[in-house]
């Protein structure tokens, strides 16, 4: 494999493009928004600058990595010659089905199609294509350049050959691929999201406050980040979407999202990306913290 196409220039998409480009692959980064592409490239450049500052790479390496990335606003232009397409669009079933149906028509017959979905069925995604044996899940963790794990999800029809190819490819990226089967939430989110949901339930039932709940999990369970803070960084809308996928898939009430989570998402309190979730990330709050440092 030489040419990789990545659909979506958001947090996950630009991170995926980064690691492929850093490993020497030619990457086509695709997004319908030119502004999103520019933000994505700026994020990659900023992350590479950190690596240069830490002497993990040289300035010349940064230049070469960025040169490996081309951007496109039209899917057809970016995927027509790709060996592998990795979809990293928003976690919405209808959007993903439309993308994969289009990809099946636009890509060469031998092109492999992967989704970075964190919960949606790979089998269902593959069902809208004429190549279900060549459709697979590549669930990268955030932040992609740092986190080692990639969940490799086999759909019902995913071939052994394709699975082997993607496992080996992930290793070339310096990742640790772990093969899992296609059930709602896979492994990572099947375990993580109920914990986050339970933390929200604990807050909802007024057992303890936000900081107290996160402190217990950080100091008592050695978690690097509390579950409520982690939810803010993931995005509360994403957490809600994943829980709904698992609840719909298993019909088990233990996956039902907490009413507090539902209300916060409806109110637009989505976490870091909206400026407020369980914590306040607004500019005024940041200014308060900076001011406090000089008192």
Write a structural description.
The protein is α/β, with parallel strands linked by helices. It has two domains: 3-181, NAD(P)-binding Rossmann-like Domain (Rossmann fold); 190-283, N-(1-d-carboxylethyl)-l-norvaline Dehydrogenase, domain 2, CATH 1.10.1040. The protein contains 13 helices and eight strands. It has an eight-stranded mixed beta sheet with strand order 3-2-1-4-5-6-7-8, with helices on both faces. Helix 1 (11-22) crosses helix 2. The chain is globular and about 55 Å long. The termini are far apart. The model is unreliable at 290-295 (pLDDT under 50).
Please name the CATH architecture of the largest domain: 3-Layer(aba) Sandwich
Strand content: 5-15%
Number of helices: 13
Quaternary structure classification: single chain
In angstroms, what separates the terminal alpha carbons? Answer: 56 Å
- Unreliable spans: 290-295
The tally of domains stands at 2
- Sketch the major β-sheet: 8 strands, mixed
Report the mean per-residue pLDDT as an integer: 95
Rg, Cα atoms, Å: 20 Å
CATH topology group of the largest domain: Rossmann fold
What is the total tally of β strands?
Answer: 8
Level-1 CATH class name of the largest domain: Alpha Beta
Major sheet: arrangement of strands: 3-2-1-4-5-6-7-8
Which word captures the global form?
globular
Relevant CATH superfamily of the largest domain: NAD(P)-binding Rossmann-like Domain
Structural class determined from secondary elements:
alpha/beta
Estimated helix fraction:
40-55%
User: What is the N-to-C succession of helices and strands?
Assistant: EHEHHEHEHEHEEHEHHHHHH
């Amino acid at each position: 494999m030489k040419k990789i196409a990545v659909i979506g220039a958001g947090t996950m998409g630009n991170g995926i493009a980064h690691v492929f480009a850093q490993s020497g692959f030619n990457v086509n980064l695709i997004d319908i928004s030119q502004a999103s592409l520019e933000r994505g490239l700026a994020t990659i450049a900023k992350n590479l600058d950190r690596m240069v500052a830490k002497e993990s790479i040289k300035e010349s390496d940064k230049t070469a990595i960025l040169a490996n990335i081309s951007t496109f606003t039209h899917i057809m232009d970016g995927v027509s010659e790709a060996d592998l397409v990795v979809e990293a669009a928003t976690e919405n079933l209808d959007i993903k089905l439309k993308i994969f149906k289009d990809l099946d028509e636009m890509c060469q017959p031998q092109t492999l199609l992967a989704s970075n979905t964190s919960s949606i069925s790979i089998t269902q995604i593959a069902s809208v294509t004429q190549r279900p044996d060549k459709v697979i899940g590549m669930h990268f963790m955030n932040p992609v350049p740092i986190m080692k794990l990639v969940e490799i999800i086999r759909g019902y029809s995913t071939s052994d050959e394709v699975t082997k190819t993607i496992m080996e490819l992930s290793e070339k990226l310096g990742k640790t691929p772990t093969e899992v089967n296609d059930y709602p939430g896979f492994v990572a989110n099947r375990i993580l999201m109920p914990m986050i949901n339970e933390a929200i339930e604990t807050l909802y039932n007024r057992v303890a406050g936000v900081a107290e709940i996160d402190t217990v999990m950080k100091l008592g369970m050695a978690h690097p980040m509390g579950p409520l803070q982690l939810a803010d960084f993931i995005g509360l809308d994403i957490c809600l979407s994943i829980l709904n996928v698992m609840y719909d898939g298993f019909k088990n009430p233990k996956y039902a999202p907490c009413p507090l989570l539902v209300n916060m998402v409806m109110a637009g309190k989505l976490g870091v990306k909206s400026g407020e979730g369980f914590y306040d990330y607004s500019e005024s709050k940041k200014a308060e913290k900076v001011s406090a440092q000089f008192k």
